Amino acid sequence: MIWTTEAVVVRVVRYGERDAILTLLTETGIVTAMARGGARPAGRLSSAARLCAQGTYVLYQGRGMGDVRQAEIARQRRALHEDVVKAAYAAYLCDLASRAVPERPDAPPAAYRQFVAVLDGLEADRVPADVLARAFELKVCAWLGVGPDWRACVRCGASLAETGEAPRYDPREGGLICARCASLITSAAASSWPVPRKISTVLHLLERADIAKLHRVDLSGAMRDALSRILAHQLREFAGVGGRARQVLDDMVASLTDPPGEDGGRLDT
Ligand SMILES: [Zn+2]
């Protein structure tokens, strides 16, 4: 069977001297396919066999792994290869998508569009890279069923918007807890983490946001640090994805950049 699909390359594994095995994210899910000659710099499929390349792929599907017959690449996404920080984020996000999105045809309906939007956002620089990554991680948590209602205490269900007091993150329950639960439950108080007061709203808005429409996201350094720590833990402990790749990203970004600024604290979506 020959079929045609829009796709983004989320993993490339060299196969021998000439070929490459591609993991493609399509609108209906993940598919793997052999790109013959894809590993040769001047090969016909070389531009179709680069991480983050996006375009129309014509695939032959026999028994076993598919074959890329033809590809018309619409976006090479060179900016994501040339800038070392962007390249690190792109590599992490591709790895996360390749592990978190199910095989075709079981992808969540928004997965392809939101992943394309996160790569577009990295290229465009309108929104800080870490905030884009957090927005995508929040969607992954929801798709994998490990995203709680971030507006409610995971222990008692109380609305966190109404209490006005700072919630805490409970790493064992995998969600935010209200100040009352934190004060009543000794074990929760001891193990939970302090987080900025507005984090419940920020997590909820970023989870629901269409990444393509995110703009003017201005969050404090403390907020960005808390989001980063919570989502790394949430994905690693409850979904079993992202742990090592996220650590590699964090170490690389820390060695290349200054910490985010302390000003601001606004989220417009
Ligand atoms: Zn509570």
From TrEMBL:
It comes from the Bacteria. Residues 1-76 form the DNA replication/recombination mediator RecO N-terminal domain. It comes from Alicyclobacillus sendaiensis PA2. Involved in DNA repair and RecF pathway recombination. Keywords: DNA damage, DNA recombination, DNA repair. Belongs to the RecO family. InterPro entries: ARFGAP/RecO, DNA_rep/recomb_RecO_N, NA-bd_OB-fold, RecO, RecO_C. HAMAP family: RecO. It holds the Pfam family RecO_C. This is DNA repair protein RecO. NCBIfam families: reco.
